[in-house]
Each structure stands twice: as C-alpha cells, then as structure tokens.
Amino acid sequence: xxxxxxxxxxxxxxxxxxxxxxxxxxxxxxxxxxxxxxxxxxxxxxxxxxxxxxxxxxxxxxxxxxxxxxxxxxxxxxxxxxxxxxxxxxxxxxxxxxxxxxxxxxxxxxxxxxxxxxxxxxxxxxxxxxxxxxxxxxxxxxxxxxxxxxxxxxxxxxxxxxxxxxxxxxxxxxxxxxx
Amino acid sequence: xxxxxxxxxxxxxxxxxxxxxxxxxxxxxxxxxxxxxxxxxxxxxxxxxxxxxxxxxxxxxxxxxxxxxxxxxxxxxxxxxxxxxxxxxxxxxxxxxxxxxxxxxxxxxxxxxxxxxxxxxxxxxxxxxxxxxxxxxxxxxxxxxxxxxxxxxxxxxxxxxxxxxxxxxxxxxxxxxxxxxxxxxxxxxxxxxxxxxxxxxxxxxxxxxxxxxxxxxxxxxxxxxxxxxxxxxxxxxxxxxxxxxxxxxxxxxxxxxxxxxxxxxxxxxxxxxxxxxxxxxxxxxxxxxxxxxxxxxxxxxxxxxxxxxxxxxxxxxxxxxxxxxxxxxxxxxxxxxxxxxxxxxxxxxxxxxxxxxxxxxxxxxxxxxxxxxxxxxxxxxxxxxxxxxx
Lengths: 179, 390
Hints:
The complex is a heterodimer of chains A (179) and B (390). With 179 residues, chain A is mainly beta. Chain A is built from two helices and 14 strands; from the N terminus they run ββαβββαβββββββββ. In chain A, the strands form five sheets. Chain A has a four-stranded antiparallel β-sheet, with no helix packed on it. In chain A, strands 2-1-5 form a three-stranded antiparallel β-sheet, with no helix packed on it. Chain A is globular, with a radius of gyration of 16 Å. By secondary structure, chain B is mostly beta strands. Chain B has helices at residues 18-39, 82-89, 142-147, 299-304, and strands at residues 40-41, 43-47, 50-52, 56-59, 62-65, 71-74, 78-81, 99-109, 113-114, 123-124, 128-136, 162-163, 168-176, 181-186, 188-191, 194-197, 202-203, 214-218, 228-233, 239-247, 250-258, 263-265, 278-286, 307-315, 330-341, 347-357, 365-371, 373-382. In chain B, the strands form nine sheets. In chain B, strands 8, 11, 12, 13 and 14 form a five-stranded antiparallel β-sheet that branches. In chain B, strands 18-19-20-21-22 form a five-stranded antiparallel β-sheet, with no helix packed on it. In chain B, strands 2-5-6 form a three-stranded antiparallel β-sheet. The longest helix of chain B has 22 residues, at 18-39. The radius of gyration of chain B is 37 Å and the shape is elongated. The chains are: A mainly beta (179), B mainly beta (390). The interface between A and B is large, with 38 and 39 residues.
C-alpha cells in the first residue's frame, strides 16, 4: 500500500465517506468529479439494532477530496473517521446527533445535551427506494448553548431514510415517516 | 537619397569631396541598421540593468538596438540622482507606483574644431558622437514602448543627427517620498494582468543551424539548475531533450525523444490517453465511490464510448485490522456480502463482519455489515481518433 491515500468527505462537517489509493499518482489530489461520478452512494451500516437498508446518492458539490497519510483502519470502516487538518482521526462514542422531527418543510436535528460551542450539522434525506426518488441535503449549525437546530426543506409525504452528521460525532442513520 | 541602395565607388584620380566620403559611411550605416532591424528585433542586447543605492539610480553598462536599428552603447555606469527624478515627477510621486525608465539614442556633433585650412576657415565638426539619454517616464508610459512602430523600409540610414524618439524600457523605479530617495527597482510590472518590462533583442529566422551538432535554447544566458533548456543534438543518433543545466556545460535531461521515437521521461506522463495505448490504474477503494480511472481517461469518455475500461476488483479484507475492538478470546471474521461495479462504474462493496466469542459455548456472535474495500485494477483504452487528440 502507498504512503498516502485520498479520502472523500462531507465538505460541511469533515466526515469521511470513502478512501482510496491510486498507484499511478499516489500523492496527487484526485479530481472530485471523477471519483464521485454519477453520485457517491452512502449506505448505512447494518447491525442487529438497526437493519433498515438506506442509501443516499450524494452529488459532488457537498463533498470534497483530500490526500492524507494512509491509515488501514479507514478502509475497514471509513464512516467512523473525520478529516482533521492534513490527516484523519477516528470519531468514537455512542453519542450522535439525531433527527427529532421531520416534516414536509423542516428537519429538526438534536443533541442529547446543549453544546458548549457552535456545532456544524449536515443531513441527507432520501426517499426509501423505490417508493420515491425524493432527495434533500441540508446543512446548518447548532449554536453554542443549544441542543438542536431546525433546518428548512421541502419533501412530500412518505417514508425516508435520514443520515445525520454532526462535527466530531459519528454519522447517525435512521428512518422516518412524513405524514 | 532616393529609395535605391547606392554603393559609392571611386576611381583613380577622382577628386573626393566630404559628400563622397560621407556616402560610404552612410551606406555602411544604413546596411547595418537594416540588418539590426530586419534580421533581429529591437531591444536590449546585454546589460543596461537598473540598480539603486537609494540616493542614486544607476544604469549599468550595456548595449541595445532601437527600432531604427541604431545601436546604443553605454560603456560606463551612469548615475541618476533624486533631483533628476523630481524634475520629471515633481514632489507628488506615488509611493506605491513603479515609474518607467527609458533609454533613447542621441546623435550629436562633437564640438567643432578649427579647420587646418587656415585662420580664415570656419570651425568645422569632424565627428558625430553616438550618445544616449536616460529619462524617467510618467505612470502608464511603459505601454508606449510596446506600441511604437518603426519607420518603413528605406535605403537611407536613420537621421545622422538628433534625438531618437524610440523608447527602450530599461525597467521601473519606485520612489520613497519621505526619504526623498529611490525605494526599489524592478525589471517588470503587471499592467492589467499583462507583464510589461524589459524587452530583449530577438531573431527573425525560419531556421537555425548549429555547427557543433548541438543546438541549445536556454531561458537565461547563465542558467542555474532551476532554469530549463531545450537541446537538439546529434548525440546517440539524434535526440531532442528538455532539461536543466546542473552546472555550466552539464545538461541533465528530464524528457528525451530518441531517433527511434521513444520518449524517456523522468516524471509522469499526463494528459489525454494516447490512442490504442493501454492505460492502467490500481489501488484500494471503498464502497460507494467511482472506481478511479487511469490518468488521461475521463468519465466523459466512458459515457460517450470513446474509451473502454476493464475493471477487476477483489475484496480487501485485512484480519489484522478489525472493524471494532476485539476482546480477549474473540475473533472477527469478514465475509463478502457484495462486491461489484455498477453501470456508473461505482464500486459497491459491503463486508459482513462477525465477531465470535470463542470462550463461550455455543459461541455468541455480533454481526456488523459495513462499507468494505476492494483492491482494484482498471485497464483502459481510448479509441483511435476519439481519445488521443488535444
């Protein structure tokens, strides 16, 4: 394996979604559009506690790519890492941001407790295929001293999968119905 | 003088007047000026750099050719003072601005000396001094130098006396108003995104031929290891090389084209793929992303069919790197749940990780299905006439 790898990450929060190496040009910054192609497909881990199969096709404008030193653990579970300067670090713990409410016009993202500093949050909302092709991506911030933020969107009633990334916390996945 | 080039000749017994001798001089001068104007391009030949000590601005010795073909020779270092600058710019010079400094040709008769023909004869000048003038320009005048138009072709030389209006830009100087001195000098200045500055002489030629078997183009007269050069040589059956001079006379090529058409490059070859050549990329990639394409192959080429790719993937499961902490007596095993490339050349790879507690009976298990990684190898070819052009 080469000394460097490239990581594809959420531009707003730094969460790593994918990692790769290239023998021909191991140190060059890859073309974002080329590695995202028709859209990066984000899928949730399946566990005994959450086994809904969700998928989110993300466009290149919400992503970025960076070359960092190789860490083999990233290739095993890239979604547990974030970009930290010129390297990647693992985000651990059970604490995540979660969706406290999802309507046709808004999504409310909440933390278990008030944050002591401004916290960037990002969410992808995707209709549960094949019922609907609805897709929304929102980004915002939970202000210091608050535990939640409400971001506007526009979706139709239906069943949705939601991925929520809050800076420094693992990505959380969930399912929601919008009446 | 008419427009026909006329070469003076003399015959035995001819009584020569000053005009006959002057014709010979003017013939030679006109010929030299036409050579310098039409075989070369006007500009600085050598030297004439600007230096400053603050109180004084210096023009170093050098040679230039102006647009009339006049040769301007500065044999000694010329010093200009702050007063010279103030006489042109007054006391309101812009401290942040770069003022152009020009060189022009001045032909003047030397002070007349008494004629040897007798006390009654008038004082006669017997020499013309080919001098020069250095002057400060106003802001914006630097563009004038590039906009100058040379006079048309003529059999006659430039005027024998007088001040040429042809400006040769030597560089720029900035002014420190508080100190009343020159602040800095510069060779070039950015004007609306264009780099304007010292112009050096050139050559008008359609072909150049070396005599030693090696022709070298350099970006500096005395190149350092960071200045590139191009060398065409008869060595090794004929080579064309781009490279650098490690030290004087020692050329180190980084790209060489041989007489067989082979290209030897020290670095990477990038760009659109060469037709019919197989391009390759390999590495490790994770679930959800587009498999990286070889250098020179674009996603658009896959869509429009001008390139064909062959992708080989195999799951990359490293038992020494488990997906989560492993308690004593437990092991993680990875099984491939999905490993394929979809129609969008997107890698879909999921690994089902199972943690087995070997100390219990029957062993309890924890299962995780995570984004997995694959080793990939992509071979690509661009079709003739569709992928190799610029």
